[in-house]
Amino acid sequence: MNARTLAARWLAWTTLGLLIPLATGCQIGAKHAERNIPQPGVVDPHQPKELEMVSMPPYVVEPPDELEIGIKPAIPDIAITNAVVQSDGNLDLGFAGDVYVAGLTLAQVETKLALHLQAYSTSRDRGKASLRDPVEVSVRLVNGSQSKFYYVLGTVSNQGKFPISGNETVLDGILAAGLRSNSLPEKAYLVRPRPNGAGDQIYKVDWVGIKERGDTVTNYQLFPGDRIVVPGGKPPGLLSTLTGGG
Questions:
Q1: How many beta carbons lie within 10 A of that of residue 181, not counting itself?
Q2: Which residues contact 241 (CB under 8 A, 6 or more apart)?
Q3: Which domains does the chain have, with CATH numbers?
Q4: Cβ-proximal residues to 242 (8 Å cutoff; 6+ apart), any chain
């Protein structure tokens, strides 16, 4: 081994010996900063949660939900089976015109469509024998909800909105979004949308309790519009990664 090789190795080891304490100091500083990140909200044991879930309220139709519509007895000129709620809140019933359904439950949509189609049929058949039976309408969702979501925000792998079926919890939401190396799920919290003028609805999440002890108190059931926020620390730098710190 020549002198030049020895010198290069000595320089490399010396540099590494200087960098390791520096990286360690940076990690300690980062951990201290993470501990100071606030976790807003309160723990509310009375909220619906894992093992104590509740039924969702009646489904409210909104754009762009797709509805399957059944009509009895059949009405000439009306051959609709499926219809999508348009951005203006209307269903396009073809020759029978539009019907505004946004904000109604499925049962209310059935009633409104039945009344609208009965009036259309009566007007169309004026002067002819009227229908013996009143118009009946059945309405159901096609392929589940297209308008109801919860959101996962902050330092996660897949920030965005996720479809909700009524059985999701905070744990489901965080796992669906995925954690990053600098995610701080132990600082996570749930924000529930509130009516204008009402108080904040912010709930702390005990991630360690949920993950390591199976504690369900803060594994809240998710409802449409809920926001899970996962704060994050400083992303690991190249030096920290090389020395095994992130």
A1: 12
A2: none
A3: 3-56+147-242 (3.10.560.10), 66-141 (3.30.1950.10)
A4: 23
Residue type, 207: W
Pairing of strands 98-100, 136-141: unpaired
pLDDT band with cut points at 50, 70 and 90 for residue 194: confident
CB-CB neighbours of 180 under 10 Å:
16
pTM > 0.85 = no
Burial of 74 (0-12, 13-18, 19+ CB in 10 A): exposed
Q: Which residue has the tokens 């009402």?
A: 198
> 16 by DSSP, 3-state: which?
helix
| Highest averaged pLDDT of the listed ranges 8-12, 155-159, 241-245 | 155-159
**Cα–Cα distance measured from residue 39 to residue 30, given in angstroms and rounded to the nearest whole number:** 17
Would you say 207 and 188 are in contact if contact means Cβ atoms under 8 Å apart? yes
Count the Cβ atoms, other than its own, within 10 Å of residue 224.
Answer: 18
The separation between CA 166 and the C-alpha centre of its own chain, rounded to angstroms, equals 11
Question: Does residue 66 contact residue 143 with C-beta atoms inside 8 Å?
Answer: yes
Who's near 186: CB < 8 A, 6+ residues apart? 39, 207, 208
Which spans in 3-105 are helix H? 3-35
